[in-house]
Design goal:
InterPro entries: SLAP_dom
Distance between the termini: 30 Å
Number of helices: 2
Number of strands: 7
Organism: Salinibacillus aidingensis
CATH topology: Immunoglobulin-like
Protein name: SLAP domain-containing protein
CATH class: Mainly Beta
Shape: globular
Length: 127
């Protein structure tokens, strides 16, 4: 018997997320919860410090908790690496069979090209 994937929102997300964005995330989760993707891209943005923000649904389909301490990720668009960064997120622990929305912040110094028109890329783990 396979376990059913569930969607959870981290406490600050639960508190601050607009109803519109919550509905969008829930709809995307319904469409992607059975896929084998590790990350599902939700949206990208650039903040006031020129950091590149990538919001994804992280799908932990394993029986073990998933952590992001000392994990290197990169954002790729049209076969070009846009950003790469090693994250030290000790508080981000995703329980088994759980999907969680999260925004990864790639500091400007780790963005290799202008971050315009990159909303169709993807996030990947660097092992």
């Amino acid at each position: 018997m396979t376990k059913k994937q569930r969607l959870e929102f981290e406490r600050s997300w639960n508190k601050n997320l607009s109803e519109r964005d919550r509905l969008i995330i829930q709809q995307i989760f319904q469409k992607t919860c059975a896929s084998q993707q590790f990350f599902t891209l939700l949206w990208t943005a650039v903040n006031y410090r020129s950091d590149f923000l990538v919001t994804v649904l992280i799908h932990n389909r394993s029986e073990q908790p998933l952590t992001f301490n000392n994990r290197t990720l990169r954002y790729v668009n049209k076969n070009q690496v846009i950003a790469e960064h090693t994250f030290q997120l000790r508080d981000l622990i995703i329980e088994p069979y759980t999907s969680v929305p999260w925004t990864f912040i790639f500091p400007e110094k780790n963005c290799y090209s202008k971050v315009t028109g990159v909303s169709e890329g993807y996030v990947e783990n660097i092992l």
